[in-house]
Amino acid sequence: MSIHPSAVIAAGAVVPASCSIGPFCTVGPEVVLGEENTLISHVVLDGHTRIGARNTVYSFTAIGVPPQDLKYHGEPTQLEIGDNNTIRENVTISRGTVGGGGTTRLGSDCLLMAGVHIGHDSQVGSHCILANCATLAGHVTIEDYSTVGAFCPVHQFCTVGKHAFIGGGTIVTQDVLPFSKTSARRENKAFGANSMGLERRGFSPERIRLIQKAFRLLLVSKLNTTQAVEKMRELEGEDVALLVSFIERSARGVIK
Q1: Across all residues in the chain, what is the average pLDDT?
Q2: What is the tens place of the pLDDT at every residue in 42-51?
Q3: Residue 74 annotated as catalytic
Q4: Catalytic site residue from 34, 100, 138, 192
Q5: 120 noted as active-site residue
Q6: Which CATH superfamily is domain 197-249 in?
Q7: 239 given a catalytic annotation
Q8: Rounded distance between C-alpha atoms, residue 196 and residue 202, angstroms
Q9: Which of 74, 76, 191, 194 has the fewest Cβ atoms within 10 angstroms?
Q10: pLDDT score, position 190
Q11: Does domain 2-142 have CATH number 2.160.10.10?
Q12: CB neighbours (10 Å) of residue 234?
């Protein structure tokens, strides 16, 4: 086991021999680490935190710390993190609150760049990228393969749909459509399908064409949202069905 002499591992913490714990790291008594995790230095792991395998955590991060919620009074809530994540410098991830379900989650194969904050009870999927200083308020959902740009705050209870791309500096106060490119120029708008990102992820030209056709109905036609959704139902494919379902279940409304 590689543990630097300056690191503090509390009694009760589970740290496999395959892990590497760098200088000045602290691991709390209720933390459970999987195999082959690397803590570079000055990392704080706290609370009921369970971390999977082969994650790399960089300096000055605070993971599993108490939620920034005045209603929180020390209840035993949790944080769950999957496998193969890269968590860069100064990232903070809060554990959950009783009122929000009790558990904050981060999936697998994600990149969290420097300064990212994931607030209490947020649910981040797998294969996501959160760029520098992206900030998730409590109760945010980020679905698989989404990218949140630098300096993007995401309001409480918002959902970012699968394969969405949010441009840097966008203030997200409503749900972000799956497969979309959404950005702020003068105001927040969706600018159609994230076709380049979808192509990189192996979507066929036909799948992308159908998604683009659905977005033209939703964003470019003179139809209102209800009318556009009815027309979208006539299109084939599970991707369009996912987009329709996302719009219909949105509680905060979607960015168009």
Answers
A1: 96
A2: 999 999 999 9
A3: no
A4: 138
A5: yes
A6: Udp N-acetylglucosamine O-acyltransferase, C-terminal domain (1.20.1180.10)
A7: no
A8: 10
A9: 74
A10: 86
A11: yes
A12: 8
